[in-house]
Amino acid sequence: MAKKGDDPSARERILLAAERLFAELGFDATPTSRIAEVAGVPKGLVHYYFRRKRDLLTALVERLPDERIEPAAVVVPGDIAESLRRLVAELDRRLSASQVLSHLLWREADTHRAVRDALRSRYDVLVNQVRTVIIAAAGAGSLALADVDSAAALLALAVSYRHSVARHAEDTPDGPDEMERELTFIADALTARAAAPRESVPSSGLD
Amino acid sequence: MAKKGDDPSARERILLAAERLFAELGFDATPTSRIAEVAGVPKGLVHYYFRRKRDLLTALVERLPDERIEPAAVVVPGDIAESLRRLVAELDRRLSASQVLSHLLWREADTHRAVRDALRSRYDVLVNQVRTVIIAAAGAGSLALADVDSAAALLALAVSYRHSVARHAEDTPDGPDEMERELTFIADALTARAAAPRESVPSSGLD
Amino acid sequence: MAKKGDDPSARERILLAAERLFAELGFDATPTSRIAEVAGVPKGLVHYYFRRKRDLLTALVERLPDERIEPAAVVVPGDIAESLRRLVAELDRRLSASQVLSHLLWREADTHRAVRDALRSRYDVLVNQVRTVIIAAAGAGSLALADVDSAAALLALAVSYRHSVARHAEDTPDGPDEMERELTFIADALTARAAAPRESVPSSGLD
Amino acid sequence: MAKKGDDPSARERILLAAERLFAELGFDATPTSRIAEVAGVPKGLVHYYFRRKRDLLTALVERLPDERIEPAAVVVPGDIAESLRRLVAELDRRLSASQVLSHLLWREADTHRAVRDALRSRYDVLVNQVRTVIIAAAGAGSLALADVDSAAALLALAVSYRHSVARHAEDTPDGPDEMERELTFIADALTARAAAPRESVPSSGLD
DNA sequence: AATGAATGAGACTTCATTCAT
DNA sequence: AATGAATGAAGTCTCATTCAT
């Protein structure tokens, strides 16, 4: 039972084990003793590094990878659909690395405020990312902001839904196709308006 | 201490207490003793009616209200936006009655298969409802099915999201407005296409 | 669910179920609810007939079949071995009918005095039976009483052992043969002494 | 409340308490809380060392003292009775140390396979011990093996019976005398055959 | 006579957390 | 710094028994 100087440090192994187990079993249903076991460390060490169990959750949230994507990397000027497609592909790539964590967040969101805040902030980042890409692809000023907001919110919802709640493969056999269809629907709607802007959109007063 | 002929029966009170507490604290974090306390029954009675704790969850899922809505009640022929608006309003009205339950479903979905199935099936019903209303409002045949599917899925997502995960009031101050904006976005997109159908939509090969 | 006037009365079915379950699972490990279930009667009825659980045990003990055997039926004058062999065969026949009960008795003997007394008395009856048969077969006066007592005790032990503790078939594959061998050993010893009585046996002063 | 460096370690005290209580009340009727109480340790510690209650039983069985006795220590060449008398005395001395445990074994034998196996194996050891002593006392070859087997089985039964099931003092007031009488009966039978071997013993094919 | 809802004590067990070493 | 023994609160669940009907 090697303890300390291993490849991933003991502390790191504890976090990895906790991430996996929390996502798999839920926070409450995961005993710290099980975490120690999976991490291959003595039970005492878990509480040595993270005094209370909830400190593990906090630490996990603070380690969340940054999902900000450089718009330039995915934008195809003039082609909103393709731009969004590339954005989603890139998000997929990155999110899959921390998929279990995303999932965990949704589950524990309302019992633990720290988690709720982290989740909310991630969602906001996501919406903004989509907005930025849409605007960059469509050309600044060519679209009503309200439309962009709606489109961004809807796509963010679809993406985030796929990466969190609906992660059970057997439940969403048509996952990718559905996403593609919805994405296209949104992009087409935006493209149509860029060509012939409508003023019938009720002004929501919200930026 | 007569327990039977009371306002709601003892069994019913237990279910109500469980529903509330599960949604509030989560399934794992709710002690059966607390359920008994809130229901005003002795601890033993909880297990008399529901031998294991998880049986409470199952019973709760089986009590889910039927959310099917008669399309005729909300459809305004020719006006997709208004039709959807009325549908959403009606759904809101009905769902709010079991909001905590909806919320509970999302939380426990992946630890408990029975819950997952119930959730999935509710979502499917919702999507179909939206589809039906869209078609009835637009007039049969005037829209590409793929568009209708996409629109239905996106709106269902938004509705269901609002009623379940994002139920924390403080987190979604702009809830209703956002929903209105997204609804309008979707309706407009569909209306535009009904007027000038596009064939650029990639055929997804589905349905 | 027929309740009352059935072939075996409800009360009888309860006793039968209890006998079976007590022997199978042990007294403490058998819930009265299970007894009701196996007996096919409502739970309340068990306590209606037998207020406390232990009353079931008492009733069972009082139902013990009488194992007294008419010596004349098995004795072959002059042949102790054959006489004992027939006695054992007859005991086997009778005891097998209440084997589970015998077994139960041994298990619960020291937690329940009523059972202990019943058990002790059955054992005494058994020893006496063997004594009587030996004396009848050997001819009165031809054997030292002390020898007869020893032989009777040893054989009773072997019989009772076989019918109670060692009832697990897989544990005693050689059961019958062993019994036959021991029986012959004892009979031969007695026969030898009847022929040439020894006085070296220490007088025990008991009966 | 230092628990460790005490006279017997906490773990040991738990085992001692369990042994006593199981034998006294029976396994099922002994609450672990009572064990903790008698052992003078907090309830949690019992389950720290023995996760499930039945692990206590297993541990107890594994601690059974070895009852093998060096034949040379008790054999009096040429005197089977005296040899057996000394063997029994020695067995008594050793078994009394774990009498409650022996008793416990018989009680729980058929609900717990581990116990059953331990019991069976102890019995086999006992029978062999008696056999060895008989042969050593009588002189090799002077007795038919079948006779030796029968005698050994009968004596082992008597010894084991006295040390387990029939341990209630009031139930066997004549215990020692009876044992002496039976022992003598068996020894005499063997001695008689050594002098004038009989071939009438049915060959059982076993041994 | 018969029933099954109701009761509450208490059993086993799990677990986060503390602490001496 | 690290460990694993120790602690006790609390949780789920079982069950004999009572009782109103």
UniProtKB/TrEMBL annotation, chains A, B, C, D:
This is Transcriptional regulator. Residues 31-50 bind DNA. InterPro entries: Homeodomain-like_sf (IPR009057), HTH-type_TetR-like_transc_reg (IPR050109), HTH_TetR (IPR001647), Tet_transcr_reg_TetR-rel_C_sf (IPR036271). Residues 8-68 form the HTH tetR-type domain. Pfam families: TetR_N (PF00440). The keyword Oxidoreductase does not apply. Keywords: DNA-binding, Transcription, Transcription regulation. GO terms for molecular function: DNA-binding transcription factor activity; transcription cis-regulatory region binding. Signal peptide: none annotated. PROSITE patterns: HTH_TETR_2.
